[in-house]
Amino acid sequence: MGRLLAVELARQGHRVDIYDAGSPAAEGSAATVAAAMLAPLAESAITEPGVVRMGHHALARWPQLLAPLAEPVFFQQAGTLIVWHRQDAAEAQRLTRQLEANQHTVPELPRLEKLGSEGLAQAEPTLAHRFAQGLYLPGEGQLDNRQLLAALVVEMERLGVRTHWHSPQSPEAFRPGAPGQPDWVLDCRGLGAKSQWSALRGVRGEVARIHAPDVTLQRPTRLVHPRYPIYIAPKQDHLFVIGATEIESDDLSPASVRSTLELLSAAYAVHPGFAEGRILELATQCRPTLPDNLPAIRQTRPGVLEINGLYRHGFMIAPAMLDVTLEVLNTGQSELSQRFDLALDLAPACAPATSAAPALA
Fold first, then answer.
1. Taking the C-alpha atoms of 131, 135, 137 and 141 in order, what is their torsion angle to the nearest 10 degrees?
2. Which phi and psi (to 5°) does residue 142 adopt?
3. Of 289, 288, 290, nearest to 361 (Cα)?
4. 133 and 233 housed in the same domain
5. In sequence order, which residues have a C-beta less than 8 Å from that of residue 9 and are 6 or more positions away?
6. Cα separation values, 226 from 115, 142, 148, Å
7. What is the structure's pLDDT at 229?
8. Could you please report the per-residue DSSP string of 277-331?
9. In the chain, what is the straight-line distance between the N-terminal and C-terminal CA atoms, in Å?
10. Which end of the chain has fewer CB within 10 Å, C or N?
11. DSSP SS3 for 123
């Protein structure tokens, strides 16, 4: 969020500083570990309609945000495939009914398609011999999160954003509106803001990055399982990001043996080609999450805006959160926030931004 805001505000002509506790590589951030899937209908099974509408909004916005970047960023919009083993057919039927009901709630979403063996073979030929049925969710997508983070650094440099790496700061260090001080401080630190936003908690996730030349998948694929559903996001050059775990903990220790075995076993059950793949990375990170698992924007004092709680939907909803924040900064309010049912806690008089707007990442 900090990098997206810095780039867009710099394009609007503002002077922007970024203060980041880490380096340009964004180590220690949830954004670096994420799979960066853009799947509003798939995620509707576990989130609210407002977040789903944010995800749908973002699918159209991501190409617009990526197009001006000097560095290429892998972006794909080939839909999501959901498959299941025969023993999990009842769970798949329940999920199908839930997704169909959610489509009525958010009618702008493309309709899901039920695939038999022939349709599955056409959509994902390498899976046809292992699965007899599936669901195809058209229009959904993904991007390469690490390419994006790097491209935004290049763009900040090109636009003259002043970057202060390895420089953790808190809003208390600034006096917005005072002489020599910024007009706005934007706090986008995720769990780094817990001392200011005590309701934040960490939700742990574990992700494997695997190079598997023997596996070919055309699009993000999800496996229905009553206890251990997984997602497989195929990036470029046979790199796959595989994840599933969601643990109520802010523990950042390495992945457990049990989680790793279950994660890789489930991936192998989807495609046997993963057996000869190479594990490039087993990463853990905690998603910044508010009590209702929904994002929020609040103004704690004049000139300080906090954007947080993106939970497991960071990349899926980031453009929507960006557009709401820009509306607030430019007009003092946001019509989009009402469409997204987004918690927006602003001071009675939220003055538009003028020329300087640091972002804390």
1. -20
2. -165, 165
3. 288
4. yes
5. 16, 326, 329, 353, 357, 359
6. 21, 25, 33
7. 84
8. -EEEEEEEEEEEE-TTS--EEEEEETTEEEEE--GGGHHHHHHHHHHHHHHHHHH
9. 7
10. N
11. helix
Whether residue 51 lies inside any domain: the answer is no
Q: Which of 209, 206, 210 is nearest to 277 (CA)?
A: 210
Q: How far apart are CA 132 and CA 259, in angstroms?
A: 27
Phi, psi dihedrals of residue 221, rounded to the nearest 5°: -130, 135
Range of the domain at 315: 2-36+159-198+291-360
Sheet holding 17-19, edge to edge: 162-164, 17-19, 359-360, 185-187, 304-308, 296-301, 343-345
Smallest Cα–Cα separation from 205: which of 283, 308, 268? 283
Containing 115, the helix (H) or strand (E) segment is strand 113-115
| Total domains in the fold of the chain | 2
Residue pair 200/308 in contact (Cβ under 8 Å)? The answer is yes
Which is it for the CA torsion 141, 145, 150, 152, positive or negative? Answer: positive
User: In 3D, which of 321, 319, 313 has the Cα closest to residue 44?
Assistant: 313
> With contact defined as beta carbons under 8 Å apart, do 39 and 137 qualify?
yes
Q: Does pTM surpass 0.70?
A: yes
Per-residue model confidence as pLDDT tens digits over 335-349: 999 999 999 999 765
* pLDDT in the model for residue 300: 92
